[in-house]
Amino acid sequence: MYRVMLADDEGIVIDSTKFIIEKEFGNTCQVEFAKSGRRVIELAEVFRPDIAIIDIHMPGINGIDAIREMQRFCPNTVFIVMSAYDKFDYAKEAIKLGVMEYITKPMERTKVVGVLKKAMEQIDSDREKRSNELLIKEKLETVEPIIENGLIYDILLQEHFEEDIDNYRTILGINENYGYMMAIVCGDSQEGNHMTNAIGSSVKVSGKFQEIREGVKSFFNCKIGNVMANKIAILIPCNESEMELSERSELIDRAREMARYLRKRTDISFRVGIGGVKPLKELGDSYKEALNALIATTGTVAHSDDLNTACDYEDGYPKALEKPLFEAVSKGDLNETKVIAEKYADWMCKKAMDGDLMSMRLKVLEFSLYAEHLAYQSGGQTYRYSSRNNYLPEIMALTDTDSIKNWFMEKVATACRDVATKKEERSGNIIKTAKDYIDAHFNKDISLDDVSKVVNISPYYFSKIFKEESGLNFIEYLTNVRIDKAKKLLESSNLSVKEICVSCGYSDPNYFSRSFKKNVGVTPTEYKERY
Q1: In this predicted model, what pLDDT tens digit does every residue of 460-509 receive, in sequence order?
Q2: What is the CATH number of domain 2-128?
Q3: pTM summary value
Q4: For all residues of the chain together, what is the average pLDDT?
Q5: HSE-up of 230 (CA within 13 Å, CB side)?
Q6: Which residues does 122 contact at the CB level (< 8 Å), separation at least 6?
Q7: Cα-based distances in Å from 290 to 182, 233, 274
Q8: What is the maximal distance between C-alpha atoms in the chain?
Q9: In the chain, where are the structural domains located?
Q10: 176-307, what's its fold?
Q11: For 316, which DSSP code?
Q12: How many CB atoms lie within 10 A of CB 240?
């Protein structure tokens, strides 16, 4: 159905145009008309036409001004201008307004029909486009909570990689480089610094999660995770690395208002903890701060920066180097470890220039022991209680910053190498054991699950590291072993092709022949004839 509005001060023009429309398009068009500029605008406000055919010269408000006014509240209307005068100025003004067609009177039937069909095609196209946009929006509204929860999950468990965060940012449209976490904790009521009936209230919150989600988003531009026990984790992106006191005060007031709003809508009590601003990949720390803020106070809303729940550092301390250093050690990234460790050591050397070597010794010892702790955590090493009893005498015997720096660099680098070496050894041992098993049992019906049980790791992880280490997946490697054995038997034995097929682990001679030709280029019979 198309709503068509005719605007002309001549009744004969309206009647003839209406007759043409009804005869050509029948019941697909609903036609209304107006005979003055003011009436055109009044009718358009109620009728909301899809197509408006308007004469330029009408009593009072002219057609151009009427179109200009209508476009304020009818942005999707297709306008067709008609006039008894073929004047350039009118046409030029009509083009500026985005009018689809400018036609002169008297209007021929074929011209009217042609212009209307063109307008209808444009309307159909616009309607389809809007329908598709709504469909996409509907799908996004279904998928977006799942993606948001995936981001929150990765942040809290800190199981993400750099590219994961970048992908989430792209999909969710997060342009900011910083953010802070909010922890919403629910219960029947508040007693001291905790909420009562956490389990029961978590069930109630799950049933009203969509309502809570919409409520939170009405107060904050944020990303929301699913209900975890009686808690909901929320990420609020921001542009600045620090928050001014005035911003923090306004944020706390808004969070308090949100808690009251959610309580009224759900009949559940809420407390809100807010963590400090962090880079996006460190937001797990912000969430811990948010929870600690709620533990440290009995208020409905608590901000970690007000309560000093996080450790403060003296001015100039290279706090930004600590986490990256230990992340590099944990990954076994020796180059990155050396670069960051040297920067930190250089800072310590400058601090020790006034003769305070003891602080440098203690910090070097602290960091070295923690780096070794990470190496032990990575597995594959045996911890010995007395293995480090010479560290303190060694470091106390060092009397200058360069020697202390060298000792530090050596210990941290060694810890990093141990992590990398053990990873390589574990992978190497797993692959060697797997290949030995395949070489010994290739003539049997063995599967990926069978081999993963032999090396005692999951099929998924075994498949992953087998491909990384050998360059082939399990099936490809097993096939190569079987084909190589078949080639040797075809070259040097008197066994039939069928016997060789069975001895190489194939139960179907036809499948064996196809697999052999695919890998070698000729059939087993043709290969045997060569020798």
Answers
A1: 778 888 888 888 888 999 999 999 999 999 888 888 888 999 999 888 88
A2: 3.40.50.2300
A3: 0.53
A4: 87
A5: 21
A6: 78, 100
A7: 6, 10, 4
A8: 111
A9: 2-128, 176-307, 313-471
A10: Alpha-Beta Plaits (3.30.70)
A11: T
A12: 11
